[in-house]
Amino acid sequence: MKAPRSLPLLATSFVFVTLYGVASALYPGFLSLQVFVNLFGDNAFLGVAALGMTLVILAGGIDLSVGAVVAFSTVFIATLVARGAHPLGAMAAAVTAATFFGAFMGWLIQAFEVPAFLVTLGGAFFARGMAFVVNRESVAIAHPFWQKAADFGIPLSPSATLPATALTFLITLGAMMIIAHRTRFGRNVYAVGGGIASARLMGLPVASTRIAVYALSGACSGLAGVVSTLYTGSGDPARAAGLELDAIASVVIGGTLLTGGVGSPAGTLMGVLIFGTIQSALVFDGRLNSWWLRIAMGGLLLLFVLFQRALSRGSALEK
């Protein structure tokens, strides 16, 4: 019997529920609503970046520039605000610049048939270097509008509030769900990820689709930079080192195939929540080194890659 396409999402959801249940049983207070909400707020910038990465991987690509673009966006925003720009203008400028940068990388990949790994790796070096060109030091953001935006929240209960960072993550998730599952562009992304040659034979706009997914990834990275500045109140050219690896891990653990064509933004949400649950459990425990987060994520990533491989082999045998 053919495995349902939703099986990877079900598997990652089961892992999240199991981890959260175990942590709740081990640590008093872990089951509270505020702790659950914090999973969204504390990991919002990772989640927004990972949602952009999801579309890229669904289309059969990869984007290694995510962390560097986030860092550039944070220091770019902070520097503009420090020089008198309005925060809204600074945010719009950062997201726009990141979008065009992503589109340019997508154009290079498409026009010259250069491996995405090499183009986006070069893009990562460039964006990180430009972040240090903008400002070599961390820059604090001191602006009344920014403070109000950072403090904004939606009360969920007398003891729990949904912060602006989590709200941004959830809105981005909703937008990506609509794009992936309710638009022609989303169907094109899945088709291109399933096979570029087949997509071309079907007459689909392969070139524009590939460029667009990198543009969207850039936009999400820029928005993740906005979320990061809201969370920390500053911009830093050294921030988000290795974020692209966390994003890729969250996407793959969420059930998206690295080869493209199979996956969902909802799965990425589960991957991010798994990341956040392990991180929060380590904080509650207080005895384990933070590197156990990397060890746990590495183990889960390996298991999900093997799981995906087994599903792929099963589907191939049935054909």
How is this structure best described in words?
- The protein has 319 residues and is mainly α.
- It has one domain: ABC transporter involved in vitamin B12 uptake, BtuC (Orthogonal Bundle).
- Helix content is 75%, strand content 4%.
- It has helices spanning 7-26, 33-42, 44-58, 66-82, 87-112, 116-134, 144-151, 164-182, 184-194, 196-201, 206-232, 243-253, 265-285, 291-318; strands at residues 139-140, 153-157, 160-163, 234-235.
- It has a two-stranded antiparallel sheet. A two-stranded antiparallel sheet has the order 2-3.
- Strand 2 and strand 3 (160-163) form a beta hairpin.
- Helix 2 (33-42) packs across helix 8 and helix 8 packs antiparallel against helix 11.
- The mean pLDDT is 93.
Q: What is the distance, rounded to the nearest whole angstrom, between the alpha carbons of the first and last residues? A: 11 Å
Can you tell me the CATH class? Mainly Alpha
State the total count of DSSP E strands: 4
CATH A-level architecture:
Orthogonal Bundle
